[in-house]
């Protein structure tokens, strides 16, 4: 018999699977036998069978072996790896301790899992599982509060993604009451002196990782990182001849401001490059500057205090939207630094303030 809470958790995880995901995810899980997996394939192939019946069959197959909370957590982690955009993520930057800067202390996923689990056990009961995907280490942390018979609250589950040998770790939402303990455990496990949030958040995990790990090769420079150029830009070797464009222009179409159009395209290309932009769902600016619209609001002309307000850009891909606005001439070009270089600043929450003038020292 399966524990009622474990069975409930298993049904909850399986209920999120799409029909075409069952076989692949269960195969990665490696908990059920190959014969049971073939039986699941047969049920999936039957178009008349409902997903509810499929979930029920998988639950019955798991009763052959002793199902544990840890096994269900591993299956949940597999699902999250395939659907990372279901979570809201925040990026944190790590600072290495001086004595560990020249060598990598955590050399393997198993060592990291062991050290992190040991550190977390000082603060609370937990269930920790780790899986690799590509060059990233994925961690699922389940924090147990109360007795083992109580169901694990979704707010007590934290997902972490760490690229080894990098100074960044990406975390899903975490309860305030747990945050300090988890941060301290990460510091001790990775032998770091500081961990701080860098104001880079969003749902597209791959974009957040790209913005953090490759902040110096975004925009126009992304073509070199992605291998889209024929040769090294510093090399004197001639590039290969490109095929002529097959597009046939319509001679009846005449652009009235051809020079302006070409200049605008060059400015956009220089700022954003030719590749699709990393996906950020929000860019937020908090303004703490003097009011600059006194011609429209004369009463504000004598105001000396900073003018406080927030400006938000929201959408499925804000950077791509800003790029397209520039293309069609709906923004003034060149864009200001805090707007045109967001992809290279590794953050999407900004504070804009007037520069403080430094008075010269009196002799």
Description of the molecule:
There is one protein chain. The strands form 2 sheets. The protein has a 6-stranded antiparallel beta sheet, sandwiched between helices. The chain has a 3-stranded mixed beta sheet with strand order 8-7-9, with no helix packed on it. The chain has helices spanning 4-14, 22-29, 34-45, 51-62, 69-82, 109-120, 176-190, 205-213, 222-225, 258-272, 318-327, 337-340, 342-345, and strands at 89-96, 125-133, 136-144, 157-162, 168-172, 192-202, 282-289, 307-314, 349-353. Helix 1 packs parallel to helix 5. 36% of the residues lie in helices and 19% in strands. The chain is globular. It has 363 residues and is α+β, with helices and mostly antiparallel strands. The longest helix is centred in the middle third of the chain and has 15 residues, at 176-190. The protein is built from 13 helices and 9 strands. Belongs to the CENP-N/CHL4 family.
Q: Tell me the number of helical segments per DSSP (H or I, 4 or more residues long).
A: 13
The end-to-end span amounts to 86 Å
Strand order of the largest sheet: 2-3-4-5-1-6
Shape: globular
Order of helices and strands: HHHHHEHEEEEHEHHHEEHHHE
Structural class by SSE content? alpha+beta
Main beta sheet: strand number and arrangement? 6 strands, antiparallel
Mean pLDDT: 85
Radius of gyration: 27 Å
Low-confidence stretches: 239-248
Give the helix proportion (percent range): 25-40%
* Total beta strand runs: 9
Strand content: 15-25%
Family: Belongs to the CENP-N/CHL4 family.
Subcellular location: Chromosome, Centromere; Nucleus
Organism: Acanthaster planci (Crown-of-thorns starfish)
InterPro entries: CENP-NAC/CAD_complex, Chl4/mis15/CENP-N
